[in-house]
Description:
The chain is of the alpha/beta class. It has helices at about 40-60, 70-85, 85-90, 90-100, 105-120, 125-130, 130-145, 170-175, 195-200, 215, 240-260, 285-295, 315-330, 365-375, 375-390, 405-425, 440-445, 445-450, 460-470, 485-500, 520-525, 535-545, 565-580; strands spanning about 5, 10, 15-20, 165, 185, 205-210, 225, 230-235, 275-280, 300, 335-340, 395-400, 435-440, 455-460, 505-510, 530-535. The protein is built from 23 helices and 16 strands. α1 (about 40-60) packs across α7 (about 130-145), α8 (about 170-175) runs parallel beside α9 and α12 packs parallel to α22. Bound molecules: phosphoenolpyruvate and magnesium ion.
Amino acid sequence: MSLELQGMGVSRGVAIGRAHILFRNQPDIREYLVDEDNVEQEVNRLQRATEQAKAQLKEIRESIPANAPTDVSSFIDTHILMLQDSSLTKIPMTMIRNRRCNAEWALQLQRDALINVFNEMDDPYLRTRRDDVDHVVNRILRLLDDENAGAQDVNDGRLKGRIIIAEDLTPADTMLMQHQEIGAFVIEHGGATSHTTILARSLGIPAIVGIGSLRRYIQDNELLIIDGETGTLIAGADEASLTEYRQHRSDFQQHIASLNRYKSGPTQTREGKDIILQANADLPEDITAISNTGAQGIGLYRTEFLYMNRTSPPEEEEQLSAYRKVVEGMNNQPVTIRTFDLGADKTVDGGRNLDQATTNPALGLRAIRLCLKQPAMFRTQLRAILRASAFGKIKIMFPMVSTMQELLQAQHLLKQCKFELDQEGLNYDHQIETGAMIEIPASAICAEMFAQKVDFLSIGTNDLIQYTLAIDRIDDHVNYLYDPLHPAVLRLIKMTLDAGKKHNVPVSMCGEMAGDPRFTRLLLALGLDNFSMHPNALLEVKRAIKETDLGLLPLNTLDIMDINDPYDAELFLDEINNAVH
Ligand code: PEP
Ligand code: MG
């Protein structure tokens, strides 16, 4: 019998493959007393699981791809070291012997004791180490719980074509998986614009989020069908469904191939208005995909991935070489490098003072706030970006700016870095442009003020929608409220575009909304003429632009900003999109 589950399709494409249930964050913990005679057996059981956990980690460490950020392995090393420490190799065993508690119980008690010690530390970085304790202990608990858990790891090299089923994936997990030719992702949590989802889209991997309790229904190795567009997952499909979805898969592949004819040629509306189409890059590997789409440069280069899965932030030289590679790979096309937007769901060990336990991470020490709080780390990045600007056209963009002071402070630090480089005789582009992301309602409302202090603005709709509608972008309980057509969102976008026009400052859009062809015509009508998106969306958006004649849009198109019913707004959007040109 087949089972059909519905989630939110967040990355298009059809996959047919076997399930790989990735991990259980909360292993079942049974607590019981062990018979006197079985104590040594229980100790052995725990020792075996601890050894196995260590062996798994060593295997993962060895299989880390050579081109992964250089410090990825040190993240794993920390966990290996913990597994060699007496706090895990001796104390829980002593507890079993003294108290006759079972292995899981002993481990749990020891975890609580260790976490309490970390909680009492003043240093926020050390406090974040309790997450490591949790990860390591959970790994052992899973092994105790399930002899087969050894096969369940992110980086085990056997994931080709598999459908990854997980409670949650961090962007860091996803990054570790990027080389493994995963078939699809299905995640119990998450939203359309969570960073993990964005990454899946940029990797061109079909993905569904928000199917709660999924792992209760799906068996490891079960054959699944995934439709990343409709958000449908089918388990135990009959032959007819398999045939139908194989057909969908091949139609989708053909559809993608049919877009190839848009690769070359200018991006213009029917009446000849030039539109700039750029790509977003999340990983250095994206450059190949980007050059294949004919993008006119990179409108958003996210640099967070350089900082993740490692224990210390990247040095200037490492960053310089990463940025240089990107700008040289883009053959003189401009590259907008965004300074690190760490915090919220992109936690990092490199952000040492980042207190990851904050109650509202999205409202906390994130992006430019963290940059300014960590001036040394920020300056290292600014110096590296400046130095890379000697090798091609680079622009600098500051994320999540909410006050003018933040912008001025960031610009002041940049000036200092330029001065230092001048002193050191190091080359950089003295005319380098700086811009601010408009992704907080406050800055959209005050876009005119920001426009007067920058060379360009870029609208980040993912955060702008999150903050305007007060919906956490990674919380699946509220993702039904995510609505780019909400009149408040559309008005803020329009306000920002108008501010740019008034002050003659270019405004682009680099949030996910820019890459959704359903919104292309509307955004053109609002006055947007520079779109930046994940490369997989570029050709479809280009087609939508080429099929639009702005003069033929319904005269009342902008009245959509007055529609307060989401259903009516969708209907009106269809009308705009179906207006025959
Ligand atoms: C955005 O918020 O729209 C954006 C492009 O930035 P990020 O998704 O990295 O937060
Ligand atoms: Mg953002």
